User: What shape does this take?
Amino acid sequence: FGSRWPDGASGEIVWEHAQVLDPVAMDLGGFTVQLENAKDGIRGVIKDSGGPLQVQGEATLAGNGSYRVTATLKPRGAKGQPLRSELQYLGPPDASGRYPVALSGSL
Assistant: This one.
């Protein structure tokens, strides 16, 4: 990686009681990212912890500073109902009601 980027990572990032406040305040639940070393950088497995927003995905950070995040988002139960109207801006859901998300770029 050189001096600008970390040459590895392991551990867990936890975000409990996640919320968005704008345009409408909504609880999202909790999320974890399990970090591990990968062939060309760092990999993070993203999961929810059972709140109103179901999330499954992966994030990678390569040695050259490029990143990629792929995930699916799905409202869960009655508490996830308000999320449906906001998630529609991501495009149509798949047959299982999941909204795909893909982000990439470089730092």
Summary: The longest helix spans residues 81-87. The beta strands are 11-20, 26-38, 41-48, 53-62, 66-75, 99-106.
